[in-house]
Amino acid sequence: MSEEDDIILAELDDEELVQQMFDDLYDGLKEEIEEAVTILLDRGWAPYDILTKALVGGMTIVGADFRDGILFVPEVLLAANAMKGGMAILKPLLAETGAPRVGKMVIGTVKGDIHDIGKNLVSMMMEGAGFEVVDLGINNPVENYLNALETEGPDILGMSALLTTTMPYMKVVIDTMVEQGIRDDYIVLVGGAPLNEEFSRAIGADAYCRDAAVAVETAKDWVGRKHNSQKSA
Ligand code: B1M
C-alpha cells in the first residue's frame, strides 16, 4: 500500500484537507476532490469559500506549473476534470440562494478557445445571485452570440477568453453588433485571465470582470443602471 492510500481525508483538519485538495487537484484525482468538497460542506464551509479557497486556489498552482512547463496538457485536463467534479457538487448550492431574478445573461467562450472553467464559475455565481444564464459553451463564432441575443433577449452578453490569441475575437463580436445597430441594446461584459480594463475599453465592451464575484457585482450594477434609465426615459 502506498503512502497516498493511507490518507483518510475525513481525518485531516481543515487546513490539511485544503492542502491535500491542492495535491489531489494537481494529480487530477476527481473522486478525492468530490469527497473533500463534501467533507468541507459537512463541516459547515460556505460553498463559495470551498470554490475560491480550495478549488480555484489549487487551480492557480496547476496554472503556474503549466506555464513553467512542469505540467502538460493531459495533466491539466485531468486537473480541470477534477475541478469540474467539485464544481458540480457546489453548483446547486450556489444557485440555491432564493434570490429573485435580477436579469438574464448569455455567456460563451470565444471562437478558437476551449477554456471553460472560469466561464462556468461565472455562470454558477451569476445563477446564485439570481440571474438567468444561457451558456453557449466554448469556441463560439460571432453567429452563435448573435443568434442567442436574438432568441434569448438577455440584458447582458458575457464573453470569456483565456488566450492572448483569442481575446481579439471579442472585438469581432462587438464590431458586428455595432454594424447591425444592436450594440447598445445589451450590456457587454468580458473576462478571462489575459484581459484587463484597458483592453475592455479598447474593444468597446462595457466592463472587464476580474473574477466571478466582480462579474456578479458588475452585472448587478449595470442591470440596475439600465432599468433606472428605462424608468426615467
Ligand atoms: Co490553457 N492556457 N491552453 N488549458 N490553461 C492557459 C490560459 C495559459 C495562461 C497557461 C500558461 O501558459 N500559463 C496559456 C495561455 C497563454 C497565453 O495565451 N498567453 C494556455 C495555453 C497556452 C493553452 C494551449 C494553447 C496549450 C497547448 O495546447 N499548447 C491550449 C489552448 C486550447 C484552446 O483553447 N484552443 C490550452 C489548453 C488547456 C486545457 C484544455 C488543457 C485546459 C482547459 C480545460 C477547460 O477549461 N475545460 C487548460 C487550462 C486548465 C489552463 C489554465 C491552467 C487554467 C485556466 C483555468 O481554468 N483557471 C491556464 C493558466 C491560468 O489561467 N493560470 C491556462 C481557473 C479559472 C477559475 O480562472 O479561467 O481565469 P479563469 O476565470 C476567472 C476570471 O478570468 C474571470 O472569472 C473567472 C472566475 O473567477 N472570467 C470571467 C473568466 N471568464 C469570464 C467571463 C466573464 C467574466 C469573468 O464574462 C462576463
TrEMBL record:
GO terms for cellular component: cytosol. One of its GO terms (biological process) is tetrahydrofolate metabolic process. Keywords: Cobalt, Metal-binding. Residues 8-102 form the B12-binding N-terminal domain. InterPro entries: Cbl-bd_cap, Cobalamin-bd, Cobalamin-bd_sf, Met_Synthase/Corrinoid, Meth_synthase_dom. Residues 102-233 form the B12-binding domain. Signal peptide: none annotated. Pfam families: B12-binding (PF02310), B12-binding_2 (PF02607). GO terms for molecular function: cobalamin binding; metal ion binding; methionine synthase activity. Belongs to the methylamine corrinoid protein family. This is Cobalamin-binding protein. It comes from Sulfitobacter sabulilitoris.
